[in-house]
């Protein structure tokens, strides 16, 4: 089957860019293929890679490199029965200072029975003064498998610029066959939300890794891979078959390294495959 691809570019307006990307993966013969790709505005993908032979590795691209107030990005991914895909990005997503309108990124991921999706984007960087809404919705069929993370950096810690002005609304929702597994939300609206013991504890980087199909052995693998670190707080738990790892840290590199180690430790158990990092991570 040929890849269905369409493109419709619209001009940016005073309210910002509107961009949409829809991807569909299906099993074709011995490997997973990207069978449909529709995009509008500045969202694209590179050609698929197959370093593992059958799993489709794909890189999502946002050529402008960042979002300003009024920009809207919508990403939809569907993985059909029996298919296996890994998605990542070549760099961080940047949310710049806004004088009022929000910059929004909405992601909907749907995984069918006996299919798997690994969602491993690089971090979101929210500049001081940004007004950002980021939402990710994951819809699972009964036997679908998912491993994914979201990493966000509030402010520019390397430049000692805290996220003391601006707004951040980070939303994550996971459903299985229409029933909720996890609904998670973090709202930051000022300096008071950065330092509380029940919020970010003064650490600018927050990360969450989610994996389905986990059992007690998976939990122990994840905990063994998460080595202690004075600059990173890490908690790992299991809710039924859902593994949830949360990290707070001083730098994105530290948090990403912790979550990558967890991913590498649990991937063989959950997906039956050795850890094969995307090539782009080494560049």
UniProtKB/TrEMBL annotation:
Listed A to Z, the keywords are: Chaperone, Cytoplasm, Nickel insertion
Instruction: List cellular component terms (GO).
Output: cytoplasm
- A GO MF label: nickel cation binding
Cellular compartment(s): Cytoplasm
InterPro entries for this protein: UreD
Which Pfam families did the record assign?
UreD (PF01774)
Cross-referenced PANTHER family, in alphabetical order? UREASE ACCESSORY PROTEIN D
The entry describes its oligomerization and partners as: UreD, UreF and UreG form a complex that acts as a GTP-hydrolysis-dependent molecular chaperone, activating the urease apoprotein by helping to assemble the nickel containing metallocenter of UreC. The UreE protein probably delivers the nickel.
**Family named by the database record:** Belongs to the UreD family.
What biological function has been recorded for the protein in this entry?
Required for maturation of urease via the functional incorporation of the urease nickel metallocenter.
**The name this protein goes by in its record:** Urease accessory protein UreD
